């Protein structure tokens, strides 16, 4: 069962990502230890696309790996 958009946003917030609003329902998420940004679109109650879930899990993994190594 796919996660909801709101669940993915909570996961990003928990790791320390910050958001900036975009056009329409889009939000852009940034983290100092992540090399790029994540764009999430859709209402909080919508099901997330599979590719978006994978992208977010990969980003969280990268941030946690860099954080445990002490990189800035």
Provide the descriptors you would attach to this structure in a database record.
72 residues; alpha+beta; 2 helices; 3 strands
Concise account of the structure shown:
The protein contains two helices and three strands, in the order αβββα. It has helices at 5-15, 50-69, and strands spanning 18-21, 27-30, 38-40. The chain is globular, with a radius of gyration of 12 Å.
Write the layout of secondary structure elements.
Layout: H1 5-15, E1 18-21, E2 27-30, E3 38-40, H2 50-69
Antiparallel strand pairs: 1-2, 2-3
Question: How would you characterize the overall build of this protein?
Answer:
The longest helix has 20 residues. The protein has a three-stranded antiparallel beta sheet, covered by helices on one side. With 72 residues, it is an alpha+beta fold. Helix 1 packs parallel to helix 2. A hairpin with a 7-residue loop joins strand 2 and strand 3. The chain is globular, with a radius of gyration of 12 Å.
Extended strand count: 3
- The level of helicity is 40-55%
The rounded Rg comes to 12 Å
Biggest sheet architecture: 3 strands, antiparallel
- The largest sheet has its strands arranged as 1-2-3
The number of distinct helices, counting runs of at least 4 residues, comes to 2
- pLDDT < 50 runs, ≥5 residues: none
Assembly of the depicted chains: single chain
Question: What share of residues are in beta strands?
Answer: 15-25%
